Amino acid sequence: MTKNLEEAFDLPPIKQAIAKQKGEEKKELLPSPEEALENSAKILKALTITEKVDHALTTVDNITEHDGEMDDIAREALESYVELKELGMNMSDAHSGRMMEVAASMLRTALDAHSAKINRKLKTIDLQLKKLRVDKLAGKAGEADDDSPEFDRNELLKHIYIQREE
How far apart (Å, rounded) are the C-alpha atoms in residues 58 and 71? Predict the structure, then answer.
């Protein structure tokens, strides 16, 4: 009966359709090696950008310990990426997709380490700027005790206008 239905609806044999469907499900679960390499190229590009930002912010002090730890994590993750990528290239196609996926996750770990390092520096800079602003406001409060005249904007503009007319 199944053969008659297959012939009537011009369908492939049921065993071929099931095998084809299982093959598509496996392909959907794992990215192709090309996709994994493309993702790794994007992550490497992002890493170079974070390294540029790191060099631009060399004036920030007192975070060398955190920087060292994050650099160690990033270095080890990049080394693991290279090893896993080479291993994935030397494997059969059925297993190389998963290996490339793990290699890409190592790149992601390296990127996260660099991002954490930069976020720490940016937070430090933000705190330094806030401290300067507070110090400046505290300095202005201390200067208010002297005998210098204080004007608001409108009074100052009136004085300038009067001086121009004279």
Answer: 15
